[in-house]
Design a protein that fits this description.
Blueprint (H helix, E strand, L loop, with lengths): L2 H7 L9 H19 L5 H11 L2 E2 L4 E2 L3 E3 L5 E3 L4 E2 L3 E4 L4 E3 L4 E2 L4 E3 L1 E3 L3 H6 L2 E3 L2 E3 L4 E2 L4 E2 L4 E2 L4 E2 L4 E2 L7 E4 L4 E5 L6
Parallel strand pairs: 1-4, 2-5, 3-6, 4-7, 5-8, 6-9, 7-12, 8-13, 9-14, 12-15, 13-16, 14-17, 16-18
Antiparallel strand pairs: 10-11, 18-19
Length: 189
């Protein structure tokens, strides 16, 4: 394993422009293209493509194409999860999605972050910070989940929200940046 991939997997700063990561990208491009083209294929065929693309996939996971990711192998999706059209999962670090999660159209789950320092950014340095989405979470359409965020189980994130910080379990959050507006037991902030 090359140094850049080793650094990426360790959560350190890396430069993604190397032959080993380029090969991983080609693999992802081919599998995403096959998955996205197989919309009318048998469910078993589509499930097999997902199993080859992603790190782990639970039973009865449904992802509507088009679906795009960075590498695929950092993504784990629990049973019964539904991902609507146009999802983008940038997985230079782990993306862990629980069971029975609903993800609206054009949602983005992002682990990649780039250097603020202009010289290092120009050199292409980046790193991934893991994202965790708990069981039975609902992300509305167009939600953006930023690097390093954990969303607790049963939480609802309103359409178009930008989640920049952790959200606890059992709340409703909206806005940019997302903020908790109430708990699911009816209490408000």
């Amino acid at each position: 394993m090359g140094e850049n991939k080793r650094r990426m997997l360790a959560g350190d700063w890396f430069v993604p422009d190397d032959p080993e990561l380029a090969a991983d990208t080609r693999r992802r491009v081919e599998l995403c293209a096959a998955y996205n083209a197989a919309e009318c294929a048998e469910p078993a065929e589509r499930a097999e493509i997902l199993r080859r693309l992603l790190g782990s996939v639970g039973e009865d996971v449904r992802i509507r194409p088009p679906f795009h990711c960075d590498f695929g192998y950092h993504i784990s999706i629990g049973s019964g999860t539904f991902v609507n059209f146009g999802a983008v999962f940038l997985d230079s670090a782990a993306i862990t999605i629980g069971a029975d999660v609903q993800i609206g159209p054009y949602a983005q789950v992002l682990t990649a972050t780039h250097e603020v320092d202009p010289v290092r950014r120009r050199e292409g340095w980046e790193k991934g910070v893991p994202v965790t989405i708990g069981d039975n979470v609902w992300l509305g359409g167009g939600v953006i989940v930023c690097p390093g965020v954990t969303i607790g189980e049963d939480t609802v994130v309103g359409a178009g929200a930008v989640v920049t910080a952790d959200l606890p379990a059992g709340v409703v959050a909206v806005g940019n940046p997302a903020r908790v507006i109430r708990t699911l037991d009816g209490r408000t902030d």
